[in-house]
Design the sequence.
């Protein structure tokens, strides 16, 4: 590729040369500054791309710094009318208007143009590589205007429609979800035929494992269970938005309420599994949130029709735009640029996906678990039966899950007991590959391969065994090497168990139960949003509540803070009032 | 400064030259690779600093990638025994051991050394400027070992002691806080004399305004009210950690509890006001959190003694280290590097401080309000008396507060009413400077200065007035220009009010009450942690609850997930059980 970077540090007047008759079909440009010179040079050199570096981020639709100014990431020649330039540029000649003129001229001559900031100390030196790598930096000048809205426009549309969605009656949100569920079965043929297309393309590519193909495929029965799941979410949606959590009589005629409200705009990023789309959409609708969806490329056709059906259901109450499907071409990093427009990112997929997004998401909170390094600790006073049942289930029930056991911690005394051989026999029968922790290896004459790291998430029929001397050592080991996801103690001694449950700093701490119970459905939270290893907002399995925040509503009668000052006439009462609705998490079981 | 950067891309064997007799008092170094060559060259050139760029972040105490490896930010010659080198380096010669040897040799010769990563694509080109600017990058080799622990060690100590603090009985945490309150009055003399020292130094500097001096100063009466405040926090601490929020019978003999637990390690950054230290410490103790405190430089002596007293109180139950005072030399940016060690950052100070920290805090959540652009909207059906009272209080009660009014939105009909002149008269009497929004300016023959931006937080006796046509326009204006902090409607029409309260997407929405009520104390939350404009975790005024998260405790009897499969013998009950304690936010008012 032929690239001409021009760093616009100090514009100087360059005398216009004679028009070059070689440039046929291209308007004449008079060379007045380094912008026009650059454009001329780039076209003459038949450069593919001209990068013009300025001291602003790129082209704005209004003068930068004014209230409404928005950076344009792509500019089409036809859009020129929609730009308002500032009256003066900091540098006499070569202001933005001159740059745009030069850029348009270069574009006509067949050279693409990016105008970007070259003065940002954190990026100088990389802005050029970033642009060459196709990252969204500055403003790109393009001849071709895409058919659909930009992702920024999609986010704006989603937020606006989302606010209407949030103000609907709970019954209306519930109707939308049920409508969507109906469409999943009514439009079964169209969905399955779109899915077939994706499956064929994926099969031809030959890069997908059978497990991946299985995740990608939909069937009539999958659609039926999806529809059933959606109707359950519709029921739980009745009681989510606008629930009163707290009521306080602050003073006479001054009443405070804390109520649940949607978080705002969610971005959900999911991998090949297209059944994620209806589930996540239903959760967003139930919680009154706007939603941007970014699905896997391999499920393009399936996701497109599922999204159309979601919008068809939303249109029932005039909020079609509340859920937007983002093009698979959009980089996650570029989406994370929309920092002020997206309120929460939820990655649904591998822990690698979650980690990547946590790294990219500057400033936007991410709800998800990056790692599940779960431990089962076998105390000296454990019951043989329970140990065998719990260890088998924790490791073998679904080894790829984040709540599967990765490390088996064994009290030293257990090593010498017959129980230990039974555990090993069971693991061998289940074909679990055993790795030895350093301490365990030192006890054995012939040991299995020593672990590379005690922090490994195998996600497969493999586990590490390590020996500890005491409960305290077990707790210290888990604090040091665990991921604070889910950890289990097996013991018949209640006091030991309670110490473990109390002292261990993990999202889920279990006594005599399999780690696999760490799951929203099994916990009885209804619809599951995901499992979070973050320490704030939501921790462990997250139900619909994880998609809600609160707002404070105060109703007074002309009350002022001054009324309550030392000289004032009023006194705070701060009297707690009963709340009419079932409380936070206290949904009755009927 | 004389700096020699050496980029270690590909080591080649360099034949050792003759020993140079000029280098007296320095051991001989044989030049075997570019590290030793660089060291030799740097010392010969009498360079102040040698920067050796490698493909790892710096020097680790164990081979990088092993479970316990920690990057050393400073390395002292005496520490060499505590380092374990890997068996092999990726590049034959010039591994880390060779680098350290060369670095120590250079150090002896009077040249400081930094070993850092030069291959990270995001920092190449800046790593050198960062190092020259004194940022913590890589490992710095220094002759002088500081007396105290490093900030990493402090954080580790705090976390460990914090875990013990969290496991104390609520009465014990309460005792610590009361003990601290007692010390504030008992050690009054020492505190005031330390404070006097700070005041003198600040006064001599001459750069502090009277308001800043006032914030810095302590007095007997300030200490008394601090002690009273602490005893109130001690009371509320009884009911914070270990509170059961939810109980579910998942199945027979399988019971789930969701209980409150501390978040972990908090970093609180506060500006000159030293009374912040006891308050924040008490809140951390009450919630069982470990705490890193970073105070303003101008309050060094006061903060030091207050911190000593906090530790004296903590020692009562063996948790002295749970609260650590971080040196004022530590950069906020460097503290934010401790991403995996700090769970929540709370900036207490100007919104500029909060914004700076939000920018620096990569990955660590920040609890705070970056902006308070609060609106009061005067509806066409507002009562004159209430308008005057509420606007005066919202703007003038304490204009520097984040919950003060910045923009007064007026319904078009009000402009023509006598009420409007009364508002203007009142604002003039209160010496409030008025700026006109563009729409308001267009209505006037002679208008006050037009606002530069409708998003301005004046923080002073200044405000913007703008005109809207309808409730919907008011809501749209606030959504567009507000900061979702606190917004008020004044109207006698209940339906209009309820629409405003329902549709407006702000942390606090008030009807006929001053914006100044957006405050933890006024809301009756007890101790106030701060006000948050974040949308997740905690929103609006935050009480002790904002410093808590939850964990899930499951008690079973050998239960496995397989028991509940289609072939299994058990069924989920998911029966909600009553909780013994007062519920989330439902503290009784006795």
Sequence:
């Amino acid at each position: 590729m032929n690239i001409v970077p021009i760093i616009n540090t100090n514009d100087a007047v360059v005398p216009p040369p004679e028009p070059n008759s070689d440039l046929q079909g291209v308007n004449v440009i008079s060379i007045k500054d380094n912008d026009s010179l650059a454009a001329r040079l780039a076209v003459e050199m038949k450069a593919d791309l001209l990068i013009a570096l300025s001291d602003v981020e790129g082209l704005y639709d209004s003068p930068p710094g004014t209230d409404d100014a928005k950076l344009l990431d792509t500019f089409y020649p036809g859009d020129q009318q929609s730009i308002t330039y500032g009256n003066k540029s900091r540098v006499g000649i070569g202001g933005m208007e001159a740059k745009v003129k030069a850029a348009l001229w270069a574009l006509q001559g067949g050279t693409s143009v990016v105008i970007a900031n070259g003065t940002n100390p954190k990026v100088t030196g990389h802005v050029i590589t970033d642009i060459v790598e196709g990252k969204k930096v500055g403003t790109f000048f393009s001849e071709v205007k895409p058919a659909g809205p930009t992702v920024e426009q999609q986010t704006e549309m989603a937020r606006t429609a989302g606010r209407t969605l949030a103000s609907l009656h709970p019954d209306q949100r519930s109707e939308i979800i049920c409508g969507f569920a109906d469409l999943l079965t009514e439009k079964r043929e169209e969905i399955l035929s779109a899915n077939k297309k994706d499956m064929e393309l994926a099969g031809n590519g030959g890069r997908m494992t059978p497990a991946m193909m299985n995740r990608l495929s939909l069937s009539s029965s999958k659609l039926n269970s999806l529809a059933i799941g959606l109707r359950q979410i519709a029921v739980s949606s009745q009681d989510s938005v606008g629930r009163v959590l707290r009521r306080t009589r602050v003073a006479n005629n001054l009443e405070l309420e804390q109520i649940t409200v949607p978080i705002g705009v969610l971005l959900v990023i999911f991998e090949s599994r297209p059944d994620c789309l209806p589930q996540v959409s239903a959760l967003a609708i139930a919680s009154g949130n706007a939603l941007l969806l970014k699905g896997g490329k391999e499920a393009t056709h399936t996701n497109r029709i599922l999204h159309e059906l979601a919008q068809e259901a939303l249109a029932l109450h005039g909020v079609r735009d509340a859920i937007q499907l983002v093009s698979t071409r959009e980089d996650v990093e570029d989406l994370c640029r929309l920092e002020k427009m997206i309120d929460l990112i939820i990655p649904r997929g591998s822990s690698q996906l979650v980690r990547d997004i946590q790294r990219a998401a500057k400033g936007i909170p991410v709800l998800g678990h990056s790692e599940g390094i779960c431990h089962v600790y076998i105390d000296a006073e454990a019951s043989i039966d329970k140990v065998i049942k719990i260890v088998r289930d924790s490791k073998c029930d679904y080894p790829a899950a984040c709540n599967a056991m990765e490390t088996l911690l064994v009290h030293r005394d257990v090593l010498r007991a017959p129980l230990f051989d039974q555990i090993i026999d069971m693991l061998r029968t289940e074909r679990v590959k055993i790795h030895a922790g350093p301490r365990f290896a030192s006890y054995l004459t012939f040991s299995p391969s020593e672990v590379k790291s005690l922090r490994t998430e195998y996600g497969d029929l493999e586990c590490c065994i390590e020996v500890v001397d005491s409960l305290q050592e077990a707790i210290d080991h888990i604090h040091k090497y665990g991921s604070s996801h889910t950890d289990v103690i097996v013991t018949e001694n209640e006091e030991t168990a309670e110490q473990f449950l109390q002292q261990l700093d993990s999202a889920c701490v279990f006594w005599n139960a399999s780690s696999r119970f760490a799951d929203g459905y099994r916990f009885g939270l209804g619809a599951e949003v995901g499992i979070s290893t973050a320490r704030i907002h939501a921790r462990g399995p997250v139900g619909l509540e994880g998609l809600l925040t609160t707002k404070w509503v105060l109703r007074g009668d002309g009350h002022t803070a001054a009324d309550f000052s030392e000289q004032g006439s009023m006194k705070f009462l701060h009297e707690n009032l009963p709340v009419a609705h079932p409380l936070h998490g206290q949904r009755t079981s009927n």
Q: What stands out?
A: Chain A has a mean pLDDT of 87.
